[in-house]
Amino acid sequence: MEDADGESSAPKDYDVIVVGMGPAGAVLAIGLARAGYRVLGLERERFPRYHIGESLTGIAADVITKLGLEAEVEALGALPKPGVKVVGTHAKSEFFVPVARKTWQVRRAGFDDLLLRTAIAAGMEHQQGTVRNVLREGERVVGVSFDDAFGETHRVRARYVADCSGQSSLLCRLNVAGPRRIAMSGKQIAVFSQFEHAERDPGFQGNATCIFYSKQFHWAWFIPVSDTTTSVGCVIPTQTYRSVGDSSEEVFAWGTQHINPELNRRLQGRERVEPVRTIRNFSYSIDPYVGPGWVCVGDAHRFTDPIFSFGVSLAMTEASAAVELIAGMLEGVHETEAQRAYVDFCERGQSAVHDLIRYFWTFPSFFGYLTRGSLHADFQRLFAGDVYGDEPLEALVAMRKSLAEVRVDPEQSSKGEAIARRLRESRDMLEAVRSAYLEYSEDGIRVSLFLRHEDLDALDHLRAFERRLIGEFGREDLAVVAYPPRLAQSLFGADNTTDLHIPGGRRVFLREAS
Question: Are the CB atoms for 326 and 370 separated by under 8 Å?
């Protein structure tokens, strides 16, 4: 049966539509389906499929145990994870944090497929498809339209829609959720692959996650995913990426050789057995991420530097909380009250992870010292993902106190004024830029340029301008990023970037607004 738009309507409605069948979506669907709700799970990709994010923390293991899936995870060949080892460029920067409770290193293809199959077995209806839009009644979201694997479009209704689409951030892109705000320190790119027989630590630490780093925001992961195979990824700022190679293979080779000598040593003569893949590693947040008839879970509303592998664990834990939110709302709990409890829960966890990682990059050597001292047990819990308690752990309180005492370099203000002058003086780029913003933080200065047109010549001018700025003001604390109109609209949900607001940013007026 087709409607006037040529769309076929599904024969039944649902209690909940879950968009995205990664760990967040699958855990949410399992919980709701087991509770007896009618659930439709939509996923655009065919499983099993390759994915990064192989290291699970203790809170992910807690969710797996509650779902009754420990034996199934181990049957996949998942390795027991003994902890996390962090290796800097000198001896005092090395430390090891053992796991607080049993957890695993997994291959995401098999792990995610297991969760999907479990959701289907629980009663979820699964469809491979791509969501086109949401259905609304007034301000309330009441369903979605999606294209199935054969290209046919369907309109399905539900009492609630959950966005578990990960970094695709579906409801943000559809201007249902709030705009995406990209963190200054999140302008990074990850390049990754897998090696056979890479050298691991001897003994019980052999299956540990290893993090290798050099300077700020230059780091690599080393995660065993089978007895012989290791996932290796290098994460670097986009400026570094542009300067060290013309292809992902060249950049990956540079990263494995230069980020840390110990990583380079472990990979010498080892065989790479997967292609090099690339993903942008933008840290971002979206707000609001709940509303009438809808909610965002996990990466669909926030993504933080993945250095300590919190992403999957936060997604699964938030999904468990979203089960309570949605089930409560469907059973008559006031929606605003249920959503407020969900947001409070998510913010406790996400802010704790953000502050932990920010502290590491601000005080990396002292971070290692703290993990070996009297707060060692707290760090075990933090690395396990125990970040949702009503009262923060003593270690987190101490780190936040130190971070609060960090002040932005007073020279940044005068440097920012000089950069603003350069912006206004650059005749070769003025016509291309609609608006510009300066942002200051403890990390340095970020320049955000919003372009008038999708113009390749303009981008060439801006790259040249960027090189001039970096050469004049220093690479380490200056980031320049340009947003063509379509990208700005996608990331920030703004059609008119003249009126776009960057939190913490100061508008640089290049001309009178047109």
Answer: no
